[in-house]
Amino acid sequence: MKVLKHWVLAFVMATAPLGAPMAVLANPAAPADNATYADVTPQYILVNGDLRTGVSLSGPWHWSLDPYRDGLYDFHGKPHDPTKGRAMDISVADAMAKNPNALFEHDIHRAPVTQVPGSWIGYDPETRHYDGLMWYLKTFDAPARSGKRVFLRFGAADYRADVYLNGRKVGSHEGGFTPFSFEVTDILRDKDNNLIVAVDSKRSADTVPPTITDWETYGGITRDVRLVITPQTFVDDDFIRLTKDGRFAVDVALEGAGKAGTAVEVAIPALKLTLKGTTDAHGRVSLSAAAPKSLKRWSPDTPVLYDVTVKAGDDTVSDRIGFRTIEVRGADILLNGEPIYLRGISLHEEEFGTSPQRIITQSAARALLGEIKYGLNGNYVRLSHYPHSEVMTRMADEMGLLVWSEVPVYWTVKFDSPTVLKAAQRMQAENILRDRNRASIIIWSIGNETPISDARNSFYTAMAQHARAIDGTRLVSAALLSHRQIVDGRIDITIDDPIVSELDVLAVNTYNGWYGNDKIEDVPNTVWHSASGKPLLLSEFGADAQYGHFDADHHSRFSEDYQVDFYNGTLAMADKIPFLRGMSPWILKDFRSPRRQTTWQEGWNRKGLVSETGQRKRAFFVLSEYYRKKAAEH
Ligand code: GCB
User: Fold this and answer.
1) In terms of Cα–Cα distance, which of 622, 583, 579, 632 is closest to 381?
2) Strands (DSSP E) found in 100-192
3) Residue whose CA is closest, atom 3 of ligand 1?
4) Percent of the chain at pLDDT above 70?
5) What pLDDT does residue 330 have?
6) Candidates 213, 449, 538: which one to mutate for ligand 1, based on the most atoms within 8 Å of Cβ?
7) Over the stretch 329-352, which tens digit does the pLDDT of each residue have?
8) How far is residue 463's CA from residue 340's CA, in Å, rounded to a whole number?
């Protein structure tokens, strides 16, 4: 068994109930190859990597299609030797200067240019439905960095990325929605660096998610790329939060030769609070102090963020952090000790508009979340079905929206595969470690609508325990399916998924009145059962409607009238579920989905309450009014 990474152990100890830390470490679905949490956690966390000192490499990059994967394999299908550089990495101009007759089949240095971040589905009509391997090239001069370390950090690349700098492979990453970093200190040169990235969007039965989803695959480098510059020893991770008993708790982990015995100072100037300590032999320190009375707790109504700095040796990391508590008591969800009802909606990572890019800028995030908070009177968003950009979660902190954050364990993941579990846990670790300091996030979701089986149950158990091991301060949930029957002429739904025992909050996707044969007029009288005593969220419900299509006479499917009926019926049902504590209907905005091809849809899932360009459908106002009343009640 490999040695656990120091900080993983640290956080397990810090978050597990007293006397139980080793139990938390036991992974019930432990992969046969003895993988440990060390295998699923990134080598460098680079906490706040999006904000740290550095330079952005976003902007113009060359792109070159490689449908036959020639850049990876030679003529006979043998992989190229990654240590010797690649076909794609040869500077054709240099080589031609030496031998004007040299033969090249690729010339990425003269290939077309696009803007990174973005997705190739928007580059060109030819790439609109491309699913495969794409090469990217960025040439750049390095910033001044004497004596410092340099990391290449990608916000996300969908789905797999192989990264080469100056002809050397610096690393690979699997997973389309989480950040990754590689150290390049010794490879970087002052001038003319060649950064080549092979991004492969192709998924398989062994990927997370697998091939079939209900959303568009945005292949490409979809989030910012940065060179992050740190001192030799630096703050790799910090976890700063308010505990349920009202204390500040801080865990800091340093990386680098000088990580042991280093003084660490965590300051929140607005609260006149400074916590000091010295790292242990592993470069870790845990600090805690009573929260001052002047602390204003973060909530959707008071999204107060404090400037926090962590200083260690030559390094300083700054963040803006809100402080709040979240817990479950019986069937209630308590925010800062008070019961709260989650007035939410689900969201895919797509900006308003028709350009197929998926570029979540601050203004795109503000526009989407603003529609939820001010348009719908909401206080909550389900960021489905994968980790959204850090721009989005930071914006939720700033604007005051509670967040459900999810990993792309969706539908038919290969639950009996230890390799797939490892990939999913790695994504989970990258997501949680990126966002543990976001007050807005209250729920880590371990997946969506997965069919019950023994393999799935142990996979989910491992995921739930892993989430708690990294962050024991938030609630764990999953969007489940439920058990429907007709009893005494009424729709009768029982939540009897065995995974319920592993979850803090139940969540069910329910589409009666849209999918299946139930009529929407029968939905209000649905009876719900759960023996768990835990709070329930309706994590999805919705019906397709094309904006502007009305059918007052027949209320036919895809009309706005039908969608209004569906919302009225489902909200009436919701009012009668005694243990319901919130909802995130499907979905704020119509989103691209290649599997939706009727004349009403034309490649869009039309369950949005607003169209792709942001026009509000009538059902938007139904939910907005419902939430206005709910907000007044609570
Ligand atoms: C679901 C899925 C979601 C789909 C939605 C639909 O249950 O969780 O990803 O997009 O239904 O529209 O069918």
Assistant:
1) 583
2) 113-116, 133-140, 149-154, 157-158, 160-165, 168-174, 180-183
3) 214
4) 92
5) 98
6) 449
7) 999 999 999 999 999 999 999 999
8) 26
Question: What CA–CA distance (Å, rounded) separates 579 from 495?
Answer: 12
d(CA 524, CA 574): 8
Amino acid identity of residue 59, one-letter, is: G
Question: Which residue type sits at 36?
Answer: T
- pLDDT, one tens digit per residue, over 47-99 is 999 999 999 999 999 999 999 888 877 777 777 655 554 556 656 666 777 77
Tokens at 576, concatenated: 């009668």
C-alpha pair distances (Å), 157 with each of 198, 397, 517: 10, 24, 40
Distances (CA, A) of 242 to 137, 290, 376: 44, 9, 29
Q: What is the per-residue pLDDT for 113?
A: 96
Whether ligand 1 lies within 6 angstroms of the CB of 540 is answered as yes
* Contact (Cβ atoms closer than 8 angstroms) between residue 370 and residue 159: no
Closest C-alpha to 469, from 40, 35, 32: 40
206 vs 31, 59, 513, CA distance in Å?
A: 15, 33, 34
Q: Which residues of the chain have pLDDT under 70?
A: 1-38, 80-94
Output the six-digit token pair for 17.
Answer: 């109930």
Q: Which residues pair with 196 in a beta bridge?
A: 137, 164
Q: Indicate if ligand 1 lies below 6 Å from the C-beta of 177.
A: no
> Does the predicted TM-score (pTM) go above 0.85?
yes
Q: Which of 348, 509, 597 to mutate to test the pocket of ligand 1 (most atoms within 8 A of CB)?
A: 509
Q: How many DSSP H helices and E strands does the chain contain? A: 10, 35
Specify which residues 308 forms β-bridges with: 319
Tell me the β-bridge partners of 65.
Answer: 134
332-335 and 326-329 strand pairing: antiparallel
β strands within 73-211, DSSP E: 113-116, 133-140, 149-154, 157-158, 160-165, 168-174, 180-183, 193-200
Q: What is the largest CA-CA distance in the chain?
A: 85
Amino acid, single-letter form, for residue 171 = G
